[in-house]
Amino acid sequence: MTGLNFYRGDLAALSSLGRRRNLRSRTGIDFASNDYLGLAGDGALLSALSEALDRGVALGSGGSRLLRGNDPEHESLEHEAASFFGAGSTLFFSSGYSANLAVFATLPQRGDLVLYDELVHASAHDGMRLGRAATEAVRHNDPEAFEAAILDWRRAGGKGRPWLAVESLYSMDGDIAPIGSLVEIADRHDGFLVIDEAHATGVFGARGRGLAEALDGRENVITLHTCGKALGCEGALVCLDPVLRDFLVNRARSFIFSTAPSPLMAAAVRAALRLVEAEPEHREALQARVRHAEARLARVGVTATGSQILPLIIGDDARTMTLAGAVQQAGFDVRGIRPPTVPPGTSRLRISITLNASEQDIDRLADTLAEALAR
């Protein structure tokens, strides 16, 4: 069929660049997932689901939250999450993608300016494209560049509010944002700071509340906490002022026109938050494992990032995928990451440290990488 020729051609072009993706079953020791605390199959969460089923919690919501889909489990989760994160209110979404889409498409208004870190997640980009505000990329992790962009905008006649959009912990580089400096800039310029805590939630903070835990509850700070990474569940919680929450409920199309998340998943997330707070030993064990990995993987060129995400930059796309294949053949699930997920010339192996892999597994991975790199 000739109507498919464009799509065939595009896929062929991706193949020629070594960038064509495919789905495959997960095999090997986990150095790829975001299940940092190993909670995705944790018995306590499975028990919480079983208990919820026993008391009659439904699998499906049956509709959007504004129709008949609003379940007491959603409201209980949002109430408990607001308390856990120290937020004025929270709103539960089916995924971090839909949450970012809602925030950036809905809250910045015409005349505002969204300044976003150049490495911010694709979901934020898609939300900004649907929004009314002007947007501008800013150098990665550079507070001075954010401030300079605001001042340039004001000098050019900008009258609205600036919005600063960052991740607290970047998923492909593993580095941490200068959150303290960024909130000072937002305060100085009567702006908002939006922080995606996806990879920090459950892992960092005194109670597992993330890297921005000291800022939750502020009127001009919005944080997003995904539930499908360290919390081992699914969905996302947006923490924000109650006025902004009400605005999202009334104006955010990805919230209004989506079937509500499963009430069972809301029950599971509640259990995960309680577990993270009550059992800090999971976080402590992960941090010890990260330190072990940093020491063992340094010999193959992995630089410590201060987080559980350790990239090994290769550069060339084909070489990256060849190395990934060799490591996978040896029984380790390490994935190669290529453009457009990362900038051109920075293809890498993304090594994710989780409690699903032991220190002995890390030692064997280091040996395997050393052998593959020497070929």
Compact summary:
This protein has two domains: 25-39 and 280-374, Aspartate Aminotransferase, domain 1; 57-278, Type I PLP-dependent aspartate aminotransferase-like (Major domain) (Aspartate Aminotransferase, domain 2), CATH 3.40.640. The chain is 42% helix and 15% strand.
Give the arrangement of secondary structure elements:
Elements: H1 5-16, E1 29-30, H2 43-54, H3 72-85, E2 89-93, H4 96-106, E3 113-117, H5 122-130, E4 134-138, H6 143-155, E5 162-167, H7 179-188, E6 192-196, E7 221-226, E8 236-240, H8 242-251, H9 253-256, H10 263-278, H11 281-297, E9 309-315, H12 317-329, E10 332-333, E11 335-337, E12 347-352, H13 359-374
Helix pairs in contact: 2-10, 3-10, 4-5, 11-13
Protein model, in words:
With 375 residues, the chain is an alpha/beta fold. The chain has 2 domains: 25-39 and 280-374, Alpha-Beta Complex (Aspartate Aminotransferase, domain 1); 57-278, Aspartate Aminotransferase, domain 2 (3-Layer(aba) Sandwich), CATH 3.40.640.10. The protein has 13 helices and 12 strands. The protein has helices at residues 5-16, 43-54, 72-85, 96-106, 122-130, 143-155, 179-188, 242-251, 253-256, 263-278, 281-297, 317-329, 359-374, and strands at residues 29-30, 89-93, 113-117, 134-138, 162-167, 192-196, 221-226, 236-240, 309-315, 332-333, 335-337, 347-352. The protein has a 7-stranded mixed β-sheet with strand order 2-8-7-6-5-3-4, sandwiched between helices. A 3-stranded antiparallel β-sheet has the order 9-12-11, covered by helices on one side. Strand 5, helix 7 (179-188) and strand 6 (192-196) form a beta-alpha-beta unit. Helix 2 crosses helix 10 (263-278). The longest helix is centred in the last third of the chain and has 17 residues, at 281-297. The N and C termini lie far apart (44 Å).
